[in-house]
């Protein structure tokens, strides 16, 4: 068992099967020693656990959990192009989009669900990253959150 697989097991988590793209793109691509993932929705077994806007149909707390699920899906995309997640040397950037009502301003707290999980999996040395948390009117399939990663690998 790899080091990251063991850590995920300690956390009661696993990397899911790679989600199939919902349009004309690839889940992840490599440039040099970086992997860029496509935006990942919080699919669980091929379905969204919730739809709608954060601040209305979806609570900020639930959306933070969905952001963590997006991270697991993004890591599946990374794994699909580099093999083992043990090859990661740095989480470089997290970009998160939160479909939210016009008066909702808690996008950073929602994206903490992604950032915190990356820290728990990879630790501070590899898991610390730059981040953007953006509120948007709507996301594909009416998902409440979408996350993309840029990671460095050896």
Write the layout of secondary structure elements.
Layout: H1 3-10, E1 28-31, E2 34-37, H2 60-82, E3 88-99, H3 107-127, E4 130-136, E5 145-153
Parallel strand pairs: 3-4
Antiparallel strand pairs: 1-2, 2-5, 3-5
- Mean pLDDT comes to 97
Q: Ends: how far apart?
A: 19 Å
- Gyration radius (Cα, Å) is 15 Å
What is the strand content?
A: 15-25%
List keywords for this structure.
single chain; 154 residues; alpha+beta; 23% strand; globular
Overall description:
By secondary structure, the protein is α+β, with helices and mostly antiparallel strands. The protein is built from three helices and five strands. The protein has a five-stranded mixed beta sheet with strand order 1-2-5-3-4, with helices on one face. α2 (60-82) packs parallel to α3 (107-127). The radius of gyration is 15 Å and the shape is globular. It starts with a helix and ends with a strand. The model has no long low-confidence stretch (mean pLDDT 97).
Would you summarize the structure shown here?
The chain is an alpha+beta fold and 154 residues long. The longest helix is centred in the middle third of the chain and has 23 residues.
